[in-house]
Amino acid sequence: MPPDPAARPIVVFNVNENLLDARSPEPLFCRLFGSESVLREWSAQVIP
Fold it and tell me: What is the DSSP secondary-structure string of 9-32?
């Protein structure tokens, strides 16, 4: 089946980590929880 000529291309951007400096709270998480990996786990749950 040929593509629909009325269809328009769609561009999708993942801006979760691009616009957010996800590393800025690393020192706080490391101090509070003893590991920077807790930040990655937390952010993966908050920003799916």
Answer: -------TTTSS-TTTTHHHHHHH
Query: Is residue 18 helix, strand or coil?
Result: coil
- 29-41 pLDDT per residue, tens: 899 999 888 888 8
Is residue 39 within 8 A of residue 25, CB to CB? The reply is yes
Q: Report CA dihedral (14, 20, 21, 22) to the nearest 10 degrees.
A: -70
State the pLDDT at residue 21: 73
Cα 43 to Cα 25: distance, rounded to the nearest angstrom: 11
d(CA 15, CA 39): 18
